[in-house]
Amino acid sequence: MELTICTYCDTVHRRPPVSRGSAARCRTCEASLYHADSDLGAMLAVTITAAIAFVVANAFPLITLTASGRQTAATLWSSIAASYNHELPVVAITLAVTLIVAPLVELLMLLWVLVPLAAGVRPPAFALVMRAMHALRPWRMVPVFLLGLAVAVVKLTGLAATVPGWGMFGVAVMTIAFASLASFDREVLWRRAEELRR
Amino acid sequence: MMRGAELGLVACTTCELVMKAGNAAVGTCPRCGEPLRPRKRNANARAWAFLIAAAALYIPANALPIMETEQFPTYRTDTIMSGVAFLWTEGSWSLAAVVFTASVLVPMLKLGALGLLLVTSRKGSTWRQRGRTQLYRVLEAVGHWSMLDVFVVALLSAVVQLGRFARVEPGLAVIPFAGVVVLTMLASASFDPRTIWDPHD
């Protein structure tokens, strides 16, 4: 009999499958326990979408400002550089880790895991990569940055002509893609990898 | 409802594999290699340490200026609260509410709520166990949203560099403020919500 234990309250449950789009909840504390078995192909598609959005978010301006004939633009990298140049390296590091390093490393690790699994090969260093992904996840703050962009745009409208750039679109798509990735159950990946070990 | 502790079962906190608690003596999860423990190690002591450090940084985070705005011919220096008050008096109520929630309410809620969880779980209280577990999940979910102001200040200081016409410079408070966010995240990650349900003798 398959069992699952709620990580929030230690209640032991049987693990019947749930239908797609729904989640099993703990009867004691109502925490979400697990989702329907993930479709690896769909997960890979969302990961690739997130990766493209990541490139767009990094390559294009987030906000462009025009005032009295002068134009300035903020990109992800120029925001980090601005913090660094204002002698706030701690802030520059925070931005770099939460907005570039954590999402990029997670996407690379997802591809590292999903591509071989979809092809029927156990990925090298599978367990290590899965653990690293788990540890990294709380430090990715893309949705918070999207709200920050929205707040900045509203604050700037009184000052000068403000135009949201393609980079902001990339951040928005990344936010949606990461939210979607969170609803894929990771247990399937573990099982698939265990099967391939034999 | 039976609990893992009663049935002699443990779940790996990383990959959620369920196994007999006897394996916990071996030290690592056979599936993912993460160290196995029935409960997080020194959970309360670590959570308290991070929480006290966060509370200490909360003072300079609010007392120091977070942003300097030069918009000819005016110049102003804002702390977090004066920035919210300024937005409010300017009539940007919804924006003031968003910034107030993320920068003032969430950090205070986190410090207070985690303190409450730590005190009640130490006493082995059976008061509203489900509600306390849900409170912990809220803490986990909202934890990083306080980084909002740090991002806004970084963005504004990057884009508003129009010479004498308009300029935004980040203030020193962004450092302790980012510190508060990181430390409260570490504090809530150190706490073990399963101790809310553990019987106390």
What does this structure look like?
- With 198 residues, chain A is α+β, with helices and mostly antiparallel strands.
- Chain A has helices at residues 40-59, 76-85, 89-118, 126-136, 142-156, 166-182, 187-197, and strands at residues 3-5, 12-14, 23-25, 32-35, 63-67, 70-74, 161-164.
- In chain A, the strands form three sheets. In chain A, strands 6-5-7 form a three-stranded antiparallel sheet.
- Chain A starts with a strand and ends with a helix.
- Chain B is of the alpha+beta class.
- Chain B has two domains: 1-38, no CATH class; 42-196, no CATH class.
- Chain B has seven helices and six strands, in the order H-E-E-H-E-E-H-H-H-H-E-E-H.
- A four-stranded antiparallel sheet of chain B has the order 4-3-6-5. In chain B, strands 1-2 form a two-stranded antiparallel sheet.
- The longest helix of chain B is centred in the middle third of the chain and has 31 residues, at 93-123.
- Chain B is elongated and about 70 Å long.
- The two termini of chain B are 20 Å apart.
- At the A-B interface, strand 1, strand 5, strand 6, helix 2 and helix 3 of A face helix 1, strand 1, helix 4, helix 5 and helix 6 of B.
Order of helices and strands of chain B: HEEHEEHHHHEEH
Query: What is the helical fraction of chain B, as a range of percent?
Result: 40-55%
Largest sheet of chain A: 3 strands, antiparallel
| Contiguous helical run count of chain B | 7
> What is the gyration radius of chain B calculated from CA atoms?
22 Å
Mean pLDDT of chain B: 90
Overall number of domains of chain A: 2
Please render the helix and strand layout as text.
The complex is a heterodimer of chains A (198) and B (201).
Chain A: E1 3-5, E2 12-14, E3 23-25, E4 32-35, H1 40-59, E5 63-67, E6 70-74, H2 76-85, H3 89-118, H4 126-136, H5 142-156, E7 161-164, H6 166-182, H7 187-197
Antiparallel strand pairs in A: 1-2, 3-4, 5-6, 5-7
Helix pairs in contact in A: 1-3, 1-6, 2-3, 3-4, 5-6
Chain B: H1 4-7, E1 9-11, E2 18-20, H2 43-63, E3 67-71, E4 74-78, H3 80-90, H4 93-123, H5 129-142, H6 148-159, E5 161-162, E6 166-170, H7 174-190
Antiparallel strand pairs in B: 1-2, 3-4, 3-6, 5-6
